[in-house]
Amino acid sequence: MIELYNPAEISAMRPAGAFVASVLAALRDAAAVGVNLLELDALAESMIAERGATSCYVDYHPSFGAMPFGKVLCTSVNDAVLHGLPYDYALADGDLLSVDFACSVDGWVADAATSVVVGSADPVDLALISTTEHALAAGIAAAQVGNKLGDIGSAIGEVARAAGLSINLQFGGHGVGRTMHGDPHVPNDGRPGRGLPLRAGLVIAIEPWFMHGTDQIFTDPDGWTLRSADGSRGAHSEHTIAITEDGPLVLTAP
Fold first, then answer.
1. CATH number of the domain residue 36 falls in
2. Helix spans in 34-102 (H)
3. Using an 8 Å Cβ cutoff, are 201 and 6 in contact?
4. Is 163 helix (H, G, I), strand (E, B) or coil?
C-alpha cells in the first residue's frame, strides 16, 4: 500500500534523515586504508545507541536474504555492489567502498547510501561514483508533483546510458515511512510520463547503483552480499526524499 504523509509527519521525519546523514559523514571520515569493515559497523552501532535510534538492518530478513542481516551497515567493497555484509576485512589502498545505512528515529525511518574510494583513487572509479551521484540528482529533480514514477526512472537511466553503463532493475528505490521498505518500488530506469502519478506527501528512497562492465549480479556465499557477475566494481548513491508542493525535499541531505 502506498502511503502519503502530511506536512507535520514529513517534518517529524527530519531528525531521522539528519541522523542518517551524520552517520554516513562519520563513516566517510573513518574509512581509511587499514580500517576494518567491522570497525565501521561498530562505529555506526555506537552512534545508534548514543542517539537512542533503532537499526533497520539487524533483524531484517526479507525473502532474498539467507538469514537476519545481523549488522547495522551494508559495506560493499569493489565487486560487492549491494547489501554487503560487514566481515573481517581491512580496507586496502584503492578500494571502492559503498556504505548503505538506514535507521529509525522516534518511529520514522530514513535511508541513504554513499560511495568513496579509500586511499589512491582510480579515475575510472571516481567517474563511476560521480555518475551515480549525478543520476541521483537527476532522479530527485524529476520527483515533482504532477510527474510520474517513470520520469524518475527515466532521468536516472539517461545519466547511466550517457556514461555507457547498463542498468540492473532487480533492486532500486522504495517507499519509506514507518518502515524501511514500502511501496512503491522506484526503478533506476523507466519511460517518461508513465506509471504512478507523483503526489505531495509521497516519501521515497531514490538509489541509483551501477557497475563498470555488466548489469548482472550473483549472491555471495554469505547469503547477502551481491557481486557483479564479471568482477567489475560498483557504486551506489541514495537519498530519502519527500515530494512536496514546493518540490522535492531531501531528508538525508548532509
1. 3.90.230.10
2. 37-51
3. yes
4. coil
Residue 52 has φ and ψ, to the nearest 5°, of 75, 25
Position 119 in a domain? yes
Which of these ranges, 19-23, 39-43, 57-61, 172-176, has the smallest mean pLDDT?
Answer: 57-61
Condensed to tens digits (0 to 9), the pLDDT of residues 125-164 reads 999 999 999 999 999 999 999 999 999 999 999 999 999 9
**Overall pTM surpassing 0.70 (yes/no):** yes
For residue 108, name the pLDDT band (cuts at 50, 70, 90).
very high
Q: What does the alpha-carbon distance between residue 80 and residue 206 come to, in Å, rounded to a whole number? A: 20
How many whole angstroms separate alpha carbon 38 and alpha carbon 29? 15
Contact between 222 and 87 (Cβ < 8 Å): yes
Q: How many domains does the chain have?
A: 1
Confidence tier at 212 by pLDDT (50, 70, 90): very high
Could you tell me where the beta strands, DSSP code E, fall in the chain?
A: 54-55, 74-77, 80-82, 96-105, 108-117, 173-175, 182-186, 203-206, 209-211, 217-219, 226-228, 234-236, 239-244, 247-250
pLDDT mean across residues, the chain: 97
Task: Flag whether 118 is in a domain.
Answer: yes
The whole-angstrom separation of Cα 145 and Cα 226 is 34
